[in-house]
Amino acid sequence: AYVLLHSIPRVIDSSSTVPDLLSIFHEQEMTETVHETNGHGYLGTFVGKNGWLAILRVHSHGLVTVDLQCYEEDDFAQVDNLLNALESKLKVILNGNITRIKRLPALVRGAEVDRYWPTTDNRLVEYDMDQLVYEEDSAFQNIKILHSQQYGNALILDNDLNLAESDLAYTLAIMGSGRENYTGKEVLILGGGDGGILSEMVKQKPKMVTIVHIDQKVIDACKKYMRGTCGNILDNLKGDCYQILVEDCVPVLKKYVQEGKTFDYVINDLTAIPISMEPEEDSTWEFLRLILDLSIKVLHPSGKYLTQGNAENMTESLGLYEEQLGRLSCPVGFSKEVVCVPSYLEQWVFYSVWKK
């Protein structure tokens, strides 16, 4: 679907503008249907013998839009010729009174591989996804791995882009961007089933890293198709300095609290901060508060809690999270940094939290 947008800084008389445009559609043997607008400009649809559909909308306040829908295998030179002819004709008809002309790239609908994924602030981004590498529903979520020409394989859980093989910046940021020393330390990772954090962590020779991840199928998929992120670390659930527990982290954390077990670092890689306090988000906030409270309880007095936040643009969401930090069972301090994660196409905030 191609879109032409024309902005004209004055009121348009559609009765004089439209007839001059119709000849272009008629040359393409497209049949016109006029739709009632109750005096608000002109709306016409045009159907061609080749299956093309064009929608011409002339708004009385000065916006002219043309949408053209065609098939991927159609002659794109012919499509360009039609759009070029419409642009040229409008410039002549409107006598140069056009402030802006913008031709948007084609939106591809119904493709085998979905390439459109919205940002957190609801801007539509088109990726270069060209292959569905893996898809399966687990007991917990839908798991997809798509291939991107720029970002490598990308893990998508319940239609949310989690991590691509290009995103080492995410892994390093959630580990503290090189400011932390994990040598000889006890580390607890919540989530992290893609193996990225663990793969980087073991390079620093920690005493023991415990990963608690609920979904074996995520681990298995990443082990096979996200080697650029995890290397070979997921080939075994236990190693000299790590163990992967395929369990729900909440009862595990409660057990650690009861036993009095503590960690030098707790890294929460479970979920981003919810973007609002709407009812549908409330259960996520409850889960986040529970995890945060339990994590602080198993944190060594001199330890640190590290986590992702959300996009830098989501200022309300980040503010709500920082309010939660002030309501914990013990006072904490925190710092944050903003990092560019390649496949996210937006700046991402990461937090470091410590007991005062």
TrEMBL record:
Superkingdom, taxonomy of origin: Eukaryota
Domain PABS: 115-355
MF terms in GO: spermine synthase activity
Keywords linked to the UniProt accession: Acetylation, Phosphoprotein, Polyamine biosynthesis, Transferase
GO BP term, pick one: spermine biosynthetic process
EC numbers for this chain: 2.5.1.22
PROSITE patterns for the chain: PABS_1, PABS_2
Pathway(s) annotated for this protein in UniProt: Amine and polyamine biosynthesis; spermine biosynthesis; spermine from spermidine: step 1/1
Catalysis performed (reactions): S-adenosyl 3-(methylsulfanyl)propylamine + spermidine = spermine + S-methyl-5'-thioadenosine + H(+)
InterPro entries associated with the record: PABS, PABS_CS, SAM-dependent_MTases_sf, Spermidine_synt_N, Spermidine_synt_N_sf, Spermine_synthase_animal, SpmSyn_N
Pfam name, any one: Spermine_synth
Active site, UniProt feature: D269 (proton acceptor)
UniProt subunit comment: Homodimer. Dimerization is mediated through the N-terminal domain and seems to be required for activity as deletion of the N-terminal domain causes complete loss of activity.
Family named by the database record: Belongs to the spermidine/spermine synthase family.
This protein's name: Spermine synthase
Species of the source: Gasterosteus aculeatus aculeatus
